[in-house]
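Reopening this one. Same input as before:
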Amino acid sequence: MPEENSFLTAIDAASDKINKLADTIWDNPETAFREYKSSEALISFLRSEGFTVEVGVAGLPTAFIASFGSGHPEIGFIAEFDALPGISQQALKPLPVKLEGIENGHGCGHHIYAGDAVAAALAVKAYLLSSGAKGTVKVLGCPGEEGGSGKAFMAREGAFNSLDATFGGHPERFWAVRTRPSLACCNILYKFDGRASHAGAAPHLGRSALDAVELMNVAVNFLREHIPYDHRVHYAITDSGGDAPNIVQPHAEVMYMMRAKDNADLNALCRRVDLCAQGAALATETTFTSDFRSASSNLITIPTLQRTLHQAMLDVQLPRPDDKDIAFANELAKILIDRTPDMPLYPDKILPLPDHVAPHFGSTDTGDVSWNCPTVQMHVGCWIPGTPNHSWQVVSQGKNGFARRAMLYAGKAMALAAVRLMQHPELLAAAKREHLERTGGKYEPAMPKDVMPHL
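Same output, byte for byte:
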Protein backbone atom coordinates (compact mmCIF):
# COMPACT_ATOMS: atom_id res chain seq x y z
CA MET A 1 0.00 0.00 0.00
CA PRO A 2 1.47 3.42 -0.95
CA GLU A 3 2.55 5.46 2.05
CA GLU A 4 0.10 8.23 1.20
CA ASN A 5 -2.74 5.70 1.64
CA SER A 6 -1.50 4.45 5.02
CA PHE A 7 -4.67 5.72 6.71
CA LEU A 8 -6.45 2.71 5.17
CA THR A 9 -4.58 0.45 7.60
CA ALA A 10 -6.98 1.75 10.26
CA ILE A 11 -9.53 -0.62 8.73
CA ASP A 12 -7.17 -3.58 8.99
CA ALA A 13 -6.42 -2.71 12.62
CA ALA A 14 -10.14 -2.57 13.44
CA SER A 15 -11.23 -5.45 11.18
CA ASP A 16 -12.14 -7.83 14.01
CA LYS A 17 -14.28 -5.17 15.69
CA ILE A 18 -15.98 -4.19 12.44
CA ASN A 19 -16.74 -7.83 11.63
CA LYS A 20 -18.17 -8.34 15.10
CA LEU A 21 -20.34 -5.22 14.69
CA ALA A 22 -21.71 -6.47 11.36
CA ASP A 23 -22.36 -9.89 12.90
CA THR A 24 -24.26 -8.29 15.77
CA ILE A 25 -26.56 -6.57 13.28
CA TRP A 26 -26.97 -9.85 11.34
CA ASP A 27 -27.79 -11.66 14.60
CA ASN A 28 -30.54 -9.15 15.42
CA PRO A 29 -32.52 -8.73 12.20
CA GLU A 30 -34.99 -5.91 12.81
CA THR A 31 -37.46 -4.49 10.29
CA ALA A 32 -38.04 -0.88 9.29
CA PHE A 33 -38.00 1.68 12.11
CA ARG A 34 -37.70 -1.06 14.75
CA GLU A 35 -33.91 -1.47 14.49
CA TYR A 36 -33.28 -0.66 18.16
CA LYS A 37 -30.54 -3.22 18.86
CA SER A 38 -28.77 -2.58 15.55
CA SER A 39 -28.89 1.18 15.95
CA GLU A 40 -27.64 1.00 19.52
CA ALA A 41 -24.78 -1.32 18.51
CA LEU A 42 -23.65 1.16 15.85
CA ILE A 43 -24.02 4.17 18.14
CA SER A 44 -22.08 2.50 20.96
CA PHE A 45 -19.29 1.46 18.62
CA LEU A 46 -18.91 4.90 17.06
CA ARG A 47 -18.93 6.64 20.43
CA SER A 48 -16.19 4.29 21.59
CA GLU A 49 -14.17 5.40 18.55
CA GLY A 50 -14.44 9.08 19.47
CA PHE A 51 -17.43 10.10 17.33
CA THR A 52 -20.10 12.40 18.71
CA VAL A 53 -23.56 11.04 17.94
CA GLU A 54 -26.87 12.80 17.43
CA VAL A 55 -29.68 10.33 18.03
CA GLY A 56 -33.36 10.41 17.07
CA VAL A 57 -32.64 12.40 13.89
CA ALA A 58 -35.80 13.74 12.21
CA GLY A 59 -37.89 12.28 15.01
CA LEU A 60 -36.95 8.71 14.04
CA PRO A 61 -35.87 6.79 17.18
CA THR A 62 -33.33 4.60 15.36
CA ALA A 63 -31.86 7.30 13.09
CA PHE A 64 -28.54 8.89 14.02
CA ILE A 65 -25.65 10.95 12.67
CA ALA A 66 -22.17 10.29 14.08
CA SER A 67 -19.47 12.92 13.48
CA PHE A 68 -15.72 13.27 13.86
CA GLY A 69 -13.64 16.33 13.05
CA SER A 70 -14.66 19.90 12.34
CA GLY A 71 -15.38 22.18 9.44
CA HIS A 72 -15.61 21.46 5.76
CA PRO A 73 -15.43 19.42 3.68
CA GLU A 74 -18.06 17.26 5.30
CA ILE A 75 -18.10 13.73 3.93
CA GLY A 76 -20.85 11.27 4.84
CA PHE A 77 -21.10 7.49 4.65
CA ILE A 78 -24.56 5.94 4.55
CA ALA A 79 -25.29 3.09 6.96
CA GLU A 80 -28.43 1.04 6.47
CA PHE A 81 -29.29 -1.66 8.99
CA ASP A 82 -32.89 -2.84 8.60
CA ALA A 83 -33.75 -6.43 7.72
CA LEU A 84 -36.54 -8.10 5.76
CA PRO A 85 -39.48 -10.05 7.20
CA GLY A 86 -40.05 -13.74 6.66
CA ILE A 87 -36.61 -14.86 5.48
CA SER A 88 -35.00 -16.24 8.62
CA GLN A 89 -32.01 -18.41 7.73
CA GLN A 90 -28.98 -19.93 9.38
CA ALA A 91 -25.60 -18.70 8.20
CA LEU A 92 -23.49 -20.68 5.74
CA LYS A 93 -26.21 -23.23 4.92
CA PRO A 94 -26.74 -24.21 1.25
CA LEU A 95 -30.40 -25.09 1.94
CA PRO A 96 -33.12 -23.09 3.73
CA VAL A 97 -32.90 -23.67 7.49
CA LYS A 98 -34.75 -21.16 9.69
CA LEU A 99 -33.26 -19.78 12.87
CA GLU A 100 -35.44 -20.85 15.77
CA GLY A 101 -37.43 -17.96 17.20
CA ILE A 102 -36.36 -15.50 14.50
CA GLU A 103 -38.58 -14.57 11.55
CA ASN A 104 -36.57 -11.81 9.89
CA GLY A 105 -33.30 -11.94 7.99
CA HIS A 106 -30.75 -9.67 6.33
CA GLY A 107 -31.78 -10.59 2.82
CA CYS A 108 -30.41 -7.33 1.43
CA GLY A 109 -27.14 -7.39 3.33
CA HIS A 110 -27.66 -4.17 5.26
CA HIS A 111 -25.34 -5.37 8.02
CA ILE A 112 -22.61 -5.17 5.35
CA TYR A 113 -23.87 -1.73 4.29
CA ALA A 114 -23.54 -0.51 7.88
CA GLY A 115 -20.16 -2.20 8.35
CA ASP A 116 -18.53 -0.70 5.26
CA ALA A 117 -19.77 2.77 6.25
CA VAL A 118 -18.18 2.42 9.69
CA ALA A 119 -14.95 1.07 8.17
CA ALA A 120 -14.72 3.99 5.75
CA ALA A 121 -15.39 6.51 8.50
CA LEU A 122 -12.62 5.05 10.68
CA ALA A 123 -10.14 5.36 7.82
CA VAL A 124 -11.08 8.98 7.08
CA LYS A 125 -10.82 9.72 10.81
CA ALA A 126 -7.30 8.28 10.72
CA TYR A 127 -6.46 10.52 7.78
CA LEU A 128 -7.74 13.64 9.57
CA LEU A 129 -5.71 12.80 12.67
CA SER A 130 -2.49 11.95 10.85
CA SER A 131 -2.59 14.81 8.35
CA GLY A 132 -4.01 17.55 10.53
CA ALA A 133 -6.37 18.40 7.66
CA LYS A 134 -9.57 20.24 8.32
CA GLY A 135 -12.77 18.37 7.66
CA THR A 136 -15.58 16.28 9.11
CA VAL A 137 -16.49 12.65 8.54
CA LYS A 138 -20.00 11.43 9.32
CA VAL A 139 -21.79 8.11 9.52
CA LEU A 140 -25.41 8.59 8.50
CA GLY A 141 -27.51 6.03 10.38
CA CYS A 142 -30.52 5.60 8.10
CA PRO A 143 -33.34 3.28 9.22
CA GLY A 144 -36.28 1.91 7.31
CA GLU A 145 -34.91 1.59 3.79
CA GLU A 146 -37.02 -1.47 3.04
CA GLY A 147 -40.38 0.06 2.19
CA GLY A 148 -40.09 2.81 4.79
CA SER A 149 -38.17 5.57 2.97
CA GLY A 150 -36.29 6.47 6.13
CA LYS A 151 -33.82 8.73 4.32
CA ALA A 152 -36.69 10.70 2.82
CA PHE A 153 -37.96 11.57 6.30
CA MET A 154 -34.44 12.56 7.31
CA ALA A 155 -33.91 14.63 4.16
CA ARG A 156 -37.23 16.40 4.64
CA GLU A 157 -35.91 17.64 8.00
CA GLY A 158 -32.58 18.81 6.55
CA ALA A 159 -30.37 16.00 7.89
CA PHE A 160 -28.11 15.98 4.81
CA ASN A 161 -28.00 19.68 3.97
CA SER A 162 -24.52 20.41 5.32
CA LEU A 163 -22.75 17.54 3.56
CA ASP A 164 -20.35 18.20 0.70
CA ALA A 165 -20.46 14.60 -0.58
CA THR A 166 -21.91 11.26 0.47
CA PHE A 167 -20.92 7.66 -0.26
CA GLY A 168 -22.78 4.38 0.11
CA GLY A 169 -21.70 0.76 -0.38
CA HIS A 170 -24.61 -1.61 -1.01
CA PRO A 171 -24.08 -5.41 -1.25
CA GLU A 172 -24.50 -7.00 -4.66
CA ARG A 173 -23.40 -9.85 -6.92
CA PHE A 174 -20.81 -7.75 -8.73
CA TRP A 175 -18.29 -4.93 -8.28
CA ALA A 176 -19.21 -1.60 -9.85
CA VAL A 177 -19.97 2.05 -9.28
CA ARG A 178 -23.67 2.71 -9.55
CA THR A 179 -24.25 4.93 -12.58
CA ARG A 180 -27.96 4.41 -13.22
CA PRO A 181 -30.46 6.88 -11.77
CA SER A 182 -33.72 5.64 -10.25
CA LEU A 183 -37.37 6.64 -10.32
CA ALA A 184 -39.28 8.68 -7.77
CA CYS A 185 -41.70 6.49 -5.86
CA CYS A 186 -44.60 6.63 -3.41
CA ASN A 187 -46.85 4.20 -1.54
CA ILE A 188 -50.53 5.04 -0.92
CA LEU A 189 -53.09 2.83 0.81
CA TYR A 190 -56.64 3.25 -0.54
CA LYS A 191 -59.38 2.30 1.92
CA PHE A 192 -62.94 1.80 0.66
CA ASP A 193 -66.06 1.63 2.85
CA GLY A 194 -69.50 0.47 1.82
CA ARG A 195 -72.39 -1.33 3.48
CA ALA A 196 -72.67 -4.97 4.50
CA SER A 197 -75.63 -7.07 3.47
CA HIS A 198 -76.63 -10.67 2.79
CA ALA A 199 -75.22 -11.36 -0.65
CA GLY A 200 -78.05 -13.79 -1.52
CA ALA A 201 -81.13 -12.53 0.29
CA ALA A 202 -80.56 -8.76 0.01
CA PRO A 203 -77.68 -7.96 -2.34
CA HIS A 204 -79.41 -4.74 -3.42
CA LEU A 205 -78.98 -3.34 0.08
CA GLY A 206 -75.22 -3.82 0.07
CA ARG A 207 -72.52 -1.54 -1.26
CA SER A 208 -69.38 -3.56 -1.91
CA ALA A 209 -66.03 -2.07 -0.92
CA LEU A 210 -64.34 -5.01 -2.64
CA ASP A 211 -66.13 -4.15 -5.89
CA ALA A 212 -64.73 -0.64 -5.54
CA VAL A 213 -61.20 -1.98 -5.09
CA GLU A 214 -61.54 -4.21 -8.13
CA LEU A 215 -63.01 -1.42 -10.24
CA MET A 216 -60.17 0.87 -9.23
CA ASN A 217 -57.67 -1.78 -10.27
CA VAL A 218 -59.41 -2.21 -13.64
CA ALA A 219 -59.38 1.54 -14.20
CA VAL A 220 -55.67 1.75 -13.35
CA ASN A 221 -54.91 -1.15 -15.68
CA PHE A 222 -56.57 0.75 -18.53
CA LEU A 223 -54.64 3.85 -17.46
CA ARG A 224 -51.31 2.06 -18.09
CA GLU A 225 -51.68 2.58 -21.85
CA HIS A 226 -51.78 6.34 -21.36
CA ILE A 227 -48.83 7.05 -19.08
CA PRO A 228 -45.18 7.61 -20.09
CA TYR A 229 -43.03 4.54 -20.72
CA ASP A 230 -40.85 5.20 -17.67
CA HIS A 231 -43.80 5.32 -15.25
CA ARG A 232 -44.78 2.28 -13.21
CA VAL A 233 -47.89 1.40 -11.19
CA HIS A 234 -48.08 -1.66 -8.90
CA TYR A 235 -50.75 -2.73 -6.43
CA ALA A 236 -51.62 -5.40 -3.87
CA ILE A 237 -55.02 -6.02 -2.28
CA THR A 238 -54.15 -5.89 1.39
CA ASP A 239 -57.70 -6.37 2.77
CA SER A 240 -60.28 -8.13 0.61
CA GLY A 241 -63.08 -7.66 3.14
CA GLY A 242 -63.18 -11.09 4.70
CA ASP A 243 -63.54 -14.76 3.83
CA ALA A 244 -67.31 -15.09 3.53
CA PRO A 245 -68.62 -14.74 -0.03
CA ASN A 246 -72.24 -14.48 1.20
CA ILE A 247 -71.52 -11.12 2.79
CA VAL A 248 -71.26 -7.96 0.74
CA GLN A 249 -67.88 -6.70 1.90
CA PRO A 250 -68.26 -3.38 3.73
CA HIS A 251 -64.53 -2.60 3.83
CA ALA A 252 -61.57 -3.34 1.56
CA GLU A 253 -58.10 -1.91 1.01
CA VAL A 254 -55.51 -1.83 -1.75
CA MET A 255 -51.92 -0.62 -1.54
CA TYR A 256 -50.57 1.22 -4.56
CA MET A 257 -46.96 1.93 -5.43
CA MET A 258 -46.36 4.52 -8.15
CA ARG A 259 -43.05 5.35 -9.83
CA ALA A 260 -42.18 8.20 -12.19
CA LYS A 261 -39.16 9.99 -13.66
CA ASP A 262 -39.10 12.70 -11.00
CA ASN A 263 -41.19 14.13 -8.19
CA ALA A 264 -43.23 16.41 -10.46
CA ASP A 265 -44.21 13.53 -12.73
CA LEU A 266 -44.93 11.39 -9.66
CA ASN A 267 -47.40 13.97 -8.35
CA ALA A 268 -49.15 14.02 -11.72
CA LEU A 269 -49.35 10.23 -11.81
CA CYS A 270 -50.76 10.10 -8.26
CA ARG A 271 -53.49 12.54 -9.27
CA ARG A 272 -54.57 10.25 -12.11
CA VAL A 273 -54.60 7.19 -9.86
CA ASP A 274 -56.67 9.15 -7.33
CA LEU A 275 -59.21 9.81 -10.09
CA CYS A 276 -59.48 6.06 -10.65
CA ALA A 277 -60.29 5.65 -6.96
CA GLN A 278 -62.88 8.42 -7.12
CA GLY A 279 -64.52 6.84 -10.14
CA ALA A 280 -64.63 3.42 -8.49
CA ALA A 281 -66.22 4.89 -5.36
CA LEU A 282 -68.78 6.76 -7.42
CA ALA A 283 -69.70 3.68 -9.46
CA THR A 284 -70.18 1.51 -6.35
CA GLU A 285 -71.70 4.15 -4.06
CA THR A 286 -68.90 3.66 -1.57
CA THR A 287 -66.52 6.11 0.04
CA PHE A 288 -62.73 6.03 0.13
CA THR A 289 -59.80 7.58 1.92
CA SER A 290 -56.18 7.60 0.81
CA ASP A 291 -53.44 7.03 3.37
CA PHE A 292 -50.07 8.28 2.08
CA ARG A 293 -47.44 5.93 3.53
CA SER A 294 -44.05 6.86 2.10
CA ALA A 295 -42.23 8.41 -0.83
CA SER A 296 -38.74 8.65 -2.29
CA SER A 297 -37.28 11.11 -4.77
CA ASN A 298 -35.50 10.09 -7.95
CA LEU A 299 -31.75 9.49 -7.69
CA ILE A 300 -29.36 12.16 -8.97
CA THR A 301 -26.04 10.81 -10.30
CA ILE A 302 -22.75 12.75 -10.27
CA PRO A 303 -20.15 11.69 -12.90
CA THR A 304 -17.19 13.27 -11.07
CA LEU A 305 -17.91 11.22 -7.97
CA GLN A 306 -18.44 8.11 -10.05
CA ARG A 307 -15.04 8.48 -11.69
CA THR A 308 -13.36 9.22 -8.36
CA LEU A 309 -14.87 6.18 -6.67
CA HIS A 310 -14.18 3.92 -9.65
CA GLN A 311 -10.50 4.86 -9.63
CA ALA A 312 -10.31 4.27 -5.88
CA MET A 313 -11.82 0.82 -6.36
CA LEU A 314 -9.12 0.04 -8.93
CA ASP A 315 -6.43 1.24 -6.53
CA VAL A 316 -7.44 -1.11 -3.70
CA GLN A 317 -6.82 -4.83 -4.01
CA LEU A 318 -10.02 -6.84 -4.41
CA PRO A 319 -10.67 -9.57 -1.85
CA ARG A 320 -10.08 -13.18 -2.83
CA PRO A 321 -11.97 -16.26 -1.59
CA ASP A 322 -10.22 -18.77 0.62
CA ASP A 323 -10.78 -22.55 0.71
CA LYS A 324 -13.77 -22.29 3.05
CA ASP A 325 -15.39 -19.66 0.83
CA ILE A 326 -14.88 -21.86 -2.23
CA ALA A 327 -16.30 -24.97 -0.54
CA PHE A 328 -19.43 -23.08 0.56
CA ALA A 329 -19.86 -21.44 -2.85
CA ASN A 330 -19.66 -24.80 -4.63
CA GLU A 331 -22.50 -26.12 -2.47
CA LEU A 332 -24.73 -23.04 -2.70
CA ALA A 333 -24.12 -22.57 -6.41
CA LYS A 334 -25.83 -25.89 -7.14
CA ILE A 335 -29.26 -24.44 -6.32
CA LEU A 336 -28.87 -20.89 -7.73
CA ILE A 337 -31.10 -21.05 -10.79
CA ASP A 338 -29.87 -17.70 -12.17
CA ARG A 339 -26.28 -18.93 -12.51
CA THR A 340 -24.74 -19.58 -15.90
CA PRO A 341 -21.68 -21.78 -16.57
CA ASP A 342 -19.43 -18.79 -17.26
CA MET A 343 -20.04 -17.14 -13.88
CA PRO A 344 -17.15 -17.13 -11.38
CA LEU A 345 -17.76 -18.48 -7.89
CA TYR A 346 -17.26 -14.98 -6.49
CA PRO A 347 -17.14 -11.53 -8.13
CA ASP A 348 -13.57 -11.13 -9.33
CA LYS A 349 -13.43 -7.93 -11.37
CA ILE A 350 -14.63 -4.34 -11.29
CA LEU A 351 -17.05 -3.50 -14.06
CA PRO A 352 -16.00 -0.47 -16.14
CA LEU A 353 -17.93 2.77 -16.11
CA PRO A 354 -20.42 2.48 -18.99
CA ASP A 355 -20.39 4.79 -22.00
CA HIS A 356 -24.19 4.78 -22.01
CA VAL A 357 -26.37 4.69 -18.92
CA ALA A 358 -29.33 2.38 -19.34
CA PRO A 359 -32.64 3.33 -17.68
CA HIS A 360 -33.39 1.93 -14.25
CA PHE A 361 -36.97 1.45 -13.13
CA GLY A 362 -36.39 0.78 -9.44
CA SER A 363 -36.44 3.28 -6.59
CA THR A 364 -34.36 4.06 -3.52
CA ASP A 365 -34.65 6.55 -0.68
CA THR A 366 -31.00 7.43 -1.34
CA GLY A 367 -32.59 9.59 -4.03
CA ASP A 368 -33.53 12.08 -1.32
CA VAL A 369 -29.95 12.19 -0.09
CA SER A 370 -28.77 12.81 -3.64
CA TRP A 371 -31.00 15.87 -4.02
CA ASN A 372 -29.33 17.47 -0.99
CA CYS A 373 -25.65 16.74 -1.68
CA PRO A 374 -23.50 15.05 -4.35
CA THR A 375 -23.95 11.31 -3.80
CA VAL A 376 -22.37 8.16 -5.19
CA GLN A 377 -22.91 4.46 -4.45
CA MET A 378 -20.83 1.33 -4.85
CA HIS A 379 -22.13 -2.12 -5.68
CA VAL A 380 -20.22 -4.30 -3.21
CA GLY A 381 -19.60 -7.71 -4.78
CA CYS A 382 -20.00 -9.91 -1.72
CA TRP A 383 -22.57 -12.42 -3.01
CA ILE A 384 -22.06 -15.45 -5.22
CA PRO A 385 -23.11 -14.45 -8.77
CA GLY A 386 -26.59 -15.79 -9.45
CA THR A 387 -27.81 -15.07 -5.92
CA PRO A 388 -31.33 -13.55 -5.97
CA ASN A 389 -31.74 -10.30 -4.04
CA HIS A 390 -34.01 -10.34 -0.98
CA SER A 391 -33.62 -14.07 -0.49
CA TRP A 392 -32.62 -16.58 2.18
CA GLN A 393 -29.51 -17.27 0.09
CA VAL A 394 -28.37 -13.70 0.81
CA VAL A 395 -29.00 -14.23 4.51
CA SER A 396 -26.98 -17.45 4.40
CA GLN A 397 -24.00 -15.59 2.93
CA GLY A 398 -24.18 -12.81 5.53
CA LYS A 399 -21.41 -14.23 7.70
CA ASN A 400 -19.32 -15.68 4.89
CA GLY A 401 -15.62 -14.85 5.13
CA PHE A 402 -15.66 -13.44 1.62
CA ALA A 403 -18.58 -11.14 2.44
CA ARG A 404 -16.70 -9.81 5.44
CA ARG A 405 -13.56 -9.13 3.39
CA ALA A 406 -15.69 -7.51 0.69
CA MET A 407 -17.16 -5.21 3.35
CA LEU A 408 -13.70 -4.12 4.48
CA TYR A 409 -12.58 -3.62 0.87
CA ALA A 410 -15.60 -1.39 0.23
CA GLY A 411 -14.72 0.65 3.30
CA LYS A 412 -11.20 1.17 1.98
CA ALA A 413 -12.31 2.13 -1.52
CA MET A 414 -14.89 4.63 -0.27
CA ALA A 415 -12.44 6.11 2.26
CA LEU A 416 -9.77 6.50 -0.42
CA ALA A 417 -12.22 8.29 -2.73
CA ALA A 418 -13.39 10.53 0.13
CA VAL A 419 -9.84 11.52 1.08
CA ARG A 420 -9.05 12.33 -2.53
CA LEU A 421 -11.98 14.75 -2.50
CA MET A 422 -10.47 16.35 0.58
CA GLN A 423 -7.01 16.51 -0.99
CA HIS A 424 -8.24 17.83 -4.35
CA PRO A 425 -10.79 20.61 -3.84
CA GLU A 426 -11.23 20.91 -7.60
CA LEU A 427 -12.87 17.45 -7.66
CA LEU A 428 -15.35 18.43 -4.99
CA ALA A 429 -16.04 21.73 -6.76
CA ALA A 430 -16.74 19.87 -10.01
CA ALA A 431 -19.10 17.47 -8.22
CA LYS A 432 -20.97 20.40 -6.71
CA ARG A 433 -21.32 22.08 -10.11
CA GLU A 434 -22.77 18.91 -11.58
CA HIS A 435 -25.13 18.61 -8.63
CA LEU A 436 -26.35 22.17 -9.08
CA GLU A 437 -26.89 21.61 -12.81
CA ARG A 438 -29.02 18.53 -12.15
CA THR A 439 -31.06 19.81 -9.21
CA GLY A 440 -31.26 23.54 -9.87
CA GLY A 441 -30.34 23.96 -6.22
CA LYS A 442 -33.89 23.22 -5.11
CA TYR A 443 -35.21 20.17 -3.27
CA GLU A 444 -38.96 19.60 -3.10
CA PRO A 445 -39.53 16.44 -1.05
CA ALA A 446 -41.84 13.82 -2.46
CA MET A 447 -42.76 13.06 1.16
CA PRO A 448 -45.62 15.29 2.37
CA LYS A 449 -44.92 17.34 5.49
CA ASP A 450 -47.62 15.67 7.59
CA VAL A 451 -46.67 12.06 6.83
CA MET A 452 -44.78 10.13 9.49
CA PRO A 453 -43.47 6.56 9.36
CA HIS A 454 -45.96 3.72 9.65
CA LEU A 455 -44.72 1.10 12.06
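So the earlier flakiness isn't reproducible anymore. For the record, The chain has two domains: 3-182+299-439, 184-296.
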